[in-house]
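Please, structure for the following, as tokens.
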Amino acid sequence: MIFEQTFKNIDDILHKDAGCSSELDYVEQTSWILFLKYIDDLEKDRATSAMLSGEDYTPIIETDYKWSVWAAPKLEGGKIDHNAATGDDLLNFVNNDLFPYLAKFKVSADNASTIEYKIGEIFSELKNRLQSGYNLREVINRIDELKFRTHAEKHEMSHLYEDKIKNMGNAGRNGGEYYTPRPLIATIVKVVNPKIGDTIYDGACGSAGFLCEAFNYLNQKAKDSKGGLSTKDAETLQKRTFTVKRKNRLPTSLAQ
């Protein structure tokens, strides 16, 4: 239940901020901060895996822009350092340094299938809307408590995030205008019965619920039939399967 309570607390903080006026803003602002925390956890897992394999690991994010440096520097006891940036200092760093740095990934990435490109695309489209650096500090502190490293944690997170996107659709009609319930999506994907090697196209992609469900369906289908995806099939699924058409900024960033 920690995810659910954290989301409620974050919404309460954002409700007080002059830059956030609706559920659309709540989802958007929670999303980019959650994403950077997720990237930090991902980097830790990758670094550990490389170390166990006796390999070198090159981080995605440079040191000064790591979550553990600008967002949540820790004291020896594991608590966030009370000297961590806040107020105008935090706001200036996020708006003038962090976002421009991350947006450049879109240009420097090797190709559009890399996580670097996706980072660049997200931060080219979004912007920080919080006007109070103190509110931003509170949100960061809440999100830093969350972990995304076990299957159970990711499962809980995905369900609660789905609820937030549903609320966003109900609130704005320009971010998930026609929210499709997950059970209906699952049924449609099952009827279509996609296969590895197919191109899966969503011509009116919102927050990518259909594509996420199709991805899970193909993964599970491979597990049930042959114990899992081969390396070749996994690469095909990850890099050469999904394509979409969507122009609205917020749903596109959520989908990424």
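The chain has a mean pLDDT of 88. The domain at 1-151 is CATH 1.20.1260.30 (Ferritin).
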